[in-house]
Amino acid sequence: MRINLKLLCISGFITCIALLASAYYFQFALELEPCPLCIMQRAATLMVALGCLAGFFLVERPIGLLIASGWTLLSSLFGIYLANHHNWLQNLPADQVPSCGPSLEYMIDAFPIMEVITVLLRGNGNCAEVSWSFIGFSMPAWLMVFFIGFAIASAYGVFTAWKARK
Length: 166
Fold this sequence. Notes:
The chain is an all-alpha fold and about 170 residues long. The protein has one domain (about 5-165): DsbB-like (Bromodomain-like, Up-down Bundle). It contains six helices and two strands; from the N terminus they run αααααββα. The chain has a two-stranded antiparallel sheet.
């Protein structure tokens, strides 16, 4: 059975857009403020979306598909790392949770950009709070499921493009 790569790419793109729309719904309609790791997971989701969109347009060109799928795979792995770290923070005992930090707006105004990026990647006590869950999975747990799916699909794209380029 051959998987339609064009359909796979556009499905991945639409899924990412739906995930981002959901994140903004939670932020603006339900007033759940995103923590630093949530913001970074949004960035990883956007990176996956851009890779899927590029793959959709480059599916007929093996080298283009290889680059787009490789980008999507790396972005998915970055997302898996972030979601896993976020889940780890949320499951720490209360006495081991790092202290909460300042808001992102304040950090951007007050700190050098490399320090802001470090805090965004590491997370803080704000990231340990579970503000929403569905059937026992928090938001980062669900994102990990999606990122794993994106990684598997993009690895298939890399494999297919690698075989087709010869």
